[in-house]
């Protein structure tokens, strides 16, 4: 297949039919469950997963769950509710802030933020960010805290240890939601359908035993670009389609490319496709009008992310021997 600066055309109707059949087969034949649970976040991936699951098992066998916490953008729940209302989905609303407070998740993060911004009292909005687009500059994937204030935003680079502590505390949000999903699923003899797309799967942009803790991943073979195409065809509300993809885990709004990918999805997906097809860097540079050194920079970053997250995609290791 000749390389081009956009992904190859997708037969949207065929892909919907095949994915619906996959979900149905997994739920009924492999897992032998009575229905499906999907956490809906107000994003495109969970919206498409919920609609396809509804088509697979029927509306009376689908439960969607909205799980906000105090730092969630209010638009997330609003868009999730709009989706559920449009498609007549049964929805459960679970506020997870009390659980996170009991864990001490907010306090653990706030204490670290205060090391860098002593004036931080919990009311200011902040987020973790990386240096900027890979198309614009060559730099390591180092993180900084970006703090909003009346005088304007301020940024301070943080240590690796503090980064891991913040991420570990933040990931309690995803793992709490996973627990809620399985509590409902096990009570109803339903399976949990995940919402991770191919770009996230290959590069490790999900939380192990969090949003990655599911029974099936119906979208893990599809680039984000294709999921938007499915969403438009399925009638996902425009507010969800037009919303900038975001992890929605910090008090200040951040995008997926700002926090992790350092590229917009339409560019990222083309590079992921090129990498999987072993397209030479000079062909990519010529086709996309990008300097070869930038192509190699992006490939290097994608490869590092893929290699460092390999354990996400494997079962826990154990000794490779039989006893006796």
Task: Describe it.
The protein is an alpha/beta fold and 324 residues long. It folds into two domains: 12-102 and 164-311, HUPs (Rossmann fold); 104-163, no CATH class. It has helices at residues 12-30, 44-57, 74-87, 97-103, 105-116, 160-188, 198-203, 224-234, 238-242, 256-261, 265-276, 281-288, 292-308, and strands at 35-39, 62-66, 90-93, 126-129, 144-147, 154-157, 190-192. The strands form two sheets. It has a four-stranded parallel β-sheet with strand order 3-2-1-7, with helices on both faces. Helix 1 (12-30) crosses helix 2 and helix 2 packs across helix 8 (224-234). The relative contact order is 0.15. The mean pLDDT is 94.
Radius of gyration: 20 Å
Stated plainly, the CATH topology of the largest domain is called Rossmann fold
- Overall structural class, as computed from helix and strand content, comes to alpha/beta
**Strand order in the sheet with the most strands:** 3-2-1-7
Mean pLDDT across the residues is 94
- How many DSSP H or I helices? 13
Number of domains: 2
* Beta strands, count: 7
The N- to C-terminal Cα distance equals 51 Å
CATH architecture of the largest domain: 3-Layer(aba) Sandwich
Largest sheet: 4 strands, parallel
Please write the CATH class name of the largest domain: Alpha Beta
Estimate the helix proportion, in percent: 40-55%
Beta-strand share of residues? 5-15%
* Assigned CATH superfamily of the largest domain: HUPs
As residue ranges, the low-confidence spans are none
Shape, per Cα inertia axes: globular
